[in-house]
Amino acid sequence: MNEPYRAVIDTNVLVAGLYSASGASHQILQWVEQGEIVPFLSTTLLFEYEELLRRKQNSLLLTDREIDDVLDGFCSLAETRNIHFLWRPQLSDPKDDHVLELAVAASVADIITHNVKDFSRASSFGVRVIRPAELLLTLRKLRRDTPRSSIPSGELPWVH
Known about the structure:
The chain has 7 helices and 5 strands; from the N terminus they run E-H-H-E-H-H-H-E-H-E-E-H.
């Protein structure tokens, strides 16, 4: 990849990527670690990441320290944006409005999520909503080669 792909990564993609090493969400996280995808992050989204990781801690088999490492690592790889304008309500789930607002504030074209239907109004803001597997296919077609992967399957470097 020449220029990194920039997007907002919904919480469900982070959790799915940590839960299973074989899915598209995990590949998304690997590409984040490799700098091929640059995620945008707001304070609200970071708190949502933390809340959900702690709630799902047992099923993810992560310790408190590992959750802290994941969040610290993600923060170090992300670009932060402050949200100055609230566009609420826009979505069927008001808890998702901040994700759309971040995409608008960051002027990015995509939100990566498993819940595409929850973001039905995103297109009116010029934001595309895409599933992880669709994104992988799109990026591979655009780049015409599969990105290098120096990370062993199932192991993210910011989870020790």
